[in-house]
Amino acid sequence: GAALTDAADDPVPADVDAMLDALKKEMLAEGLSVTVHAFPGRAADAILDVAEAEHADAIVVGNRGVQGSRPSLGSVPLNLLQHAHCTVIVFPTSTTGDEATQPPST
């Protein structure tokens, strides 16, 4: 795919690596086996390339997409559902009631 070859020389921002390392530590602490990957470029292409290279059994991704009056499936999970050669699990990352759980702004 294009993501690993076209953008392979672009550096991944340090904050992205730090965030992934923190998430990996949290998951390992819960007893999960996890490998993280960070590649610049189009997210869906990079995810599909890594899933293929790693012979992934599944891709787990959030549903967050264009926000509006109705929940929608984002372009990345939609692309993964259409093109992945493994199971794709899409879980809700936002709901229309998110505002009710946020503290009031001051």
Strand content: 5-15%
Give the biggest beta sheet.
2 strands, parallel
Helix content: 40-55%
As laid out across the biggest beta sheet, the strand order is 1-2
Calculate the terminal CA-CA distance, rounded to whole Å.
47 Å
What value does the average pLDDT take?
A: 80
Number of strands: 2
- Weakly predicted, low-confidence segments: 1-5, 98-106
Radius of gyration (Å): 16 Å
SSE string, helices as H and strands as E: HHHEHEH
- Tally of separate helices: 5
Secondary structure category: mainly alpha
Shape summary: globular
Give a description of the structure.
By secondary structure, the chain is mainly α. The protein has 5 helices and 2 strands. Strands 1-2 form a two-stranded parallel sheet. The N terminus and C terminus are likely disordered.
Give a quick precis of the structure.
It is built from 5 helices and 2 strands; from the N terminus they run H-H-H-E-H-E-H.
